[in-house]
């Protein structure tokens, strides 16, 4: 064999260890019951003893039968029934446990015996949904502490407390006892601000970036969008949460009042788009500044209404994105907020072309020349949301090669933004970046990112951000059957070197259909140790490790009734399926009239639960008897068609769940794949710094073809001084609004909102009279997201198909678009 052949062969090897979407359906289970074991001992080897804490994982855990018809299954990762998984790592041992969040969709699913077909997917979302089932459940009063959405995107740390959260600005998510995965409750913020503490229609938070930033002292920086429904004015807010859970709104940027006459056909906003906020999933921060990347996915107020029915003959409606539009011609914008003076540094956002969508952040810091440097994962569009996170997509193809890992350099003095690439590839199939968070806000060198997310045989790429040619980058690839998820870096105690520590990575072995926890040496990117979970663990979004020290818990492990207890390694697996299966039955209304008032009369029977446990169980029978009798008449009123479906239900369910421990041992010898370095290659486009400016102001292009030729109205930025609350806010006023029963101030606020709304809606939609607006207002409450509901709910609804319009032209920088289209991925994606 010649040298050339050897080299050629050597280059081919990485391609032979290909990633695969084969078997990835295992990551999207029908009905995952991993929460039924209180603790699962995970046989492990070589887990560093200094790791002492909890590796928490956000799980998108149950979907329903993927072969079931639309309306009887969930098909998007954001919709899936949310759960938290926890690896308790201590003294070299690992125990896994999990719990579903007691969110409303979960409770409905649980009520229907965890059968999505029976539940008829009555919760709105990205998946197709059943309008009839939804209207039925809308009438049922929410249980206290039953959030509308699964808070399964990320975790926040407030003092010693952990919040599992989603993008709902009011309640963010659940606080819970990390040790036991119990005591879930909506996080009780102490609202020292007049936006969250006194809801009013003139300032309604509609969306929030789930990915926050933390100062060394534990202060959280977050951001939200809000709208003044009276003046049709959008704001971008900045808040802090201190270690005691006190939330303060410290800055408000006023986008200006949008033009209610500028709603074109197809509900397109044809006015000045600088007046609209863009969706923000993550923010970033340096020592002195918070940086908000405002994506080109704009909140479209013309779609602040119920999405049109896509099928008037059926109760099944298409799910998807509603309420936001991605504009190929709107630049990415940056707002920069000074954390010390509490002012925005510029009166208008900095802009950079082309249009962009940002998912996640690496680090950010202040460069010596005073510029701000911020590294992030950028896409050409919001395809990750509207395409990639659909289960149909991820089980049929690889995550596309469309992400860019970019370094933005923000120069507020010269009002300009430059960017360059941090890796040799222009686009890469990767997301979920991480870094050593001890280096947050400081100059840093190393990032870690998941390559080929959600595919088996995928890898973690270690990126040297100082050398975009990539010659020092390293890649860790485990077995071909393993799907690796977002890593989390933990610094080794008493070390200073940035990459001296480990990466915790959870994975799914698709051959065994079992979870694993892998510990990597973050410096060399080789496997150090591994723990085998005796059950499958679904895919999900973000993961974080919290040491016991972080949480103020005693270090080491305690033996207690609900604590970790090392067991004999019989067959390598010992399980304690002690958890009682509890079915919480939502009150069922006996009749649901077309009017807005409901008489929720509870006809539920508390389930009797018998749990049989043997110390070393081979079979555990849990019998849940669930008897409910209800007769429900549901009438769905929608703007035009009226569907009346009468249902008579008498679900009497007798379920026996049996769990048999796996008979095979999962202990295997660990195969460590040697790290491969990425081929060094100086990209033609690097560095791009300085070349990212455009000749012509973008708004002129956006407005081409419309009569609206107004120059962009950059409203004067207002760093709104927080009205100093002299009196300490009444604690009982701080309660999460959603928890309040119907009636009372919630209704008042909503009525005020409706009044404001109906003063302009008829102007925009001439077919809607003022009376009709009011009449439909209540029906549409779920779309309007008045107070406690997140904007997320609205934008998860309706059709994803964006109507094209004259304004919605192809990208002005087609060169950047080219790479994004892989002909192999042209398979039509069904999303609306
Ligand atoms: C998919 O994976 C299964 C189980 O690992 C294997 O039997 C099958 O041959 C694979 N199919 C393809 C097309 O790779
Ligand atoms: C899923 O649905 C298909 C087709 O409707 C059916 O054949 C299959 O048995 C179902 N699977 C389960 C686990 O219910
Ligand atoms: C779920 O409910 C459907 C409809 O009632 C039923 O046909 C199916 O067998 C159930 N699936 C399971 C796994 O019980
Ligand atoms: C929609 O939901 C209702 C109420 O749960 C149910 O009776 C009906 O069968 C569902 N329709 C479809 C097409 O799944
Ligand atoms: C706080 O508000 C509640 C209800 O609004 C009221 O009953 C209570 O007296 C108030 N407490 C104080 C100290 O003002
Ligand atoms: Fe995220």
TrEMBL record:
Taxonomic superkingdom? Eukaryota
Q: Which UniProt keywords apply?
A: Iron, Metal-binding, Signal
Which amino acids does the record list as binding Fe cation? Answer: 211, 281, 360, 542
Q: How is the cofactor bound?
A: Binds 1 Fe(2+) ion per subunit.
Q: Where is this region: Disordered?
A: 590-646, 800-820
MF terms in GO: beta-carotene 15,15'-dioxygenase activity; carotenoid dioxygenase activity; metal ion binding
Where are the coiled-coil regions? none
**Which cofactors are named for this entry?**
Fe(2+)
Instruction: Cite the record's Polar residues compositional bias ranges.
Output: 803-816
Query: Can you cite a GO biological process for this protein?
Result: carotene catabolic process
The signal peptide stretch is: 1-18
- Record InterPro entries: Carotenoid_Oase
The text of the family note is: Belongs to the carotenoid oxygenase family.
Can you say what this protein is called? Uncharacterized protein
Query: From which organism does this entry originate?
Result: Caenorhabditis angaria
